[in-house]
What we know:
This protein has 417 residues and is an alpha+beta fold. The protein has four domains: 53-64 and 345-416, Beta Barrel (conserved putative lor/sdh protein from methanococcus maripaludis s2 fold), CATH 2.40.420; 69-80 and 247-330, Efflux pump adaptor protein, beta barrel domain (Elongation Factor Tu (Ef-tu), domain 3, Beta Barrel), CATH 2.40.30; 84-114 and 206-244, CATH 2.40.50.100; 116-201. Helix content is 32%, strand content 33%. The chain has helices at residues 2-11, 20-47, 116-159, 164-204, 328-336, and strands at 52-58, 60-62, 69-79, 82-85, 91-96, 103-104, 109-113, 206-208, 213-218, 225-226, 236-237, 241-244, 249-256, 268-273, 280-293, 298-305, 317-323, 348-352, 357-359, 362-369, 372-377, 379-384, 387-392, 399-402, 414-416. The strands form six sheets. A six-stranded antiparallel β-barrel has the order 3-13-16-15-14-17. The radius of gyration is 49 Å and the shape is elongated.
Amino acid sequence: MSDLSTELAGLRIERTPEPRSSRRWVLWVLLVILLGGVGAAAAWWVRHDRPIEVQVAAVTQRAAGAQASVLNASGYVTARREATVSSKITGKVVQVNVEEGMAVTEGQVLARLDDSSTRAQLGLAEAQVVAAQHAVTENQIHEQQARINLDRATKLLASGAGTQTDLEQAKLDVDTTEARISLLDEQVKVAQQQVSVARTELDNTVIRAPFSGIAVTKDAQPGEMVSPVSAGGGFTRTGICTIVDMASLEIDVDVNESYLNRVMPGQDVSAVLDAYPDWQIPARVITIVPTADRQKATVEVRIAFKTLDPRILPDMGVKVTFLKPPDASTLDDRAAGPATDRPPAQATTLVPKAALKTEGNTTFVFLVKRNVVERRAVRVGGADGDRVEVVAGLAPGDQVVISPPATLHDGSTIVVR
């Protein structure tokens, strides 16, 4: 075994340890290469154009002959005829004949109150009328007898068989009976008026629709108490339902005082409901309410729909565009002759006002082409609300940057929000 160990030891190769200085040199080379790569990447990132986040909008077109807008505003659909129907008296509801969304006609019975006590009062009043009439009849018979007695006493006195006292007593009886009949006649009239009052009270237990419309709320149920005034607490209703006359729907908008000179009665308006943004409804200005809100510096303007539609509902949000009245020259052209004698009207290209930028005498926009923008000079015309007419430089459907940032330039890479 010792010989084998000796032989194996003789076969082992002795390795010379590498100097530490050579290892450090390799590490420094690797570190320099790594730092160079990082520096190159950073330089590329600095020089490279990063995409700029922007908002874009499409260039639109106004049809030939369409009116330009002069002002935009927002408001709500309101009803000129709207009523919460209540009762004239305090009573217990026994019947409700209306539901939300139901169409009702003027005079239709909406609800009934408990009328048991009112009917009893009516019966009493009618009985009092009958009793008073019977009393009148009785005294009329007594008057006839008193007149017979008066005639007899007159004849007896003329013949000398009667006395003056008997004649005067007979006259007194006639006069007294006539006075009693007159009093009873007045009592009959009073009793008849009481009957009329009782019938009115009975009619007040029936609640009817004051006008035709649509019931939008149902506020009471059978078994609840209703009153024309608030009775305190939370157990007495003050209304049966709310009815809206859908034929009286209109728009109320608040116009800033600074732009009120752009609005006039009879002016054409285009309305768009928030619920139907693609539906333009023709309308017109009814009136400008002659008072201002000093807190908001606005004036209320009432606008009527030219055509009503079941989709228009009270309290809907609506945006309106006040349209520019036709120019006098346009009206003269229309009256000048047939359409063949006039040049055809041209469509108008419109761009959002926020997309325009100006440098010196040059007006330009940033036109979007895929993910890159191009600076495009344009020639503009008149304003159309928050849009501007473009005479040259753009076509309908082009995409332009809205409110372009200061860092945006020709050829910049963008990303659309």
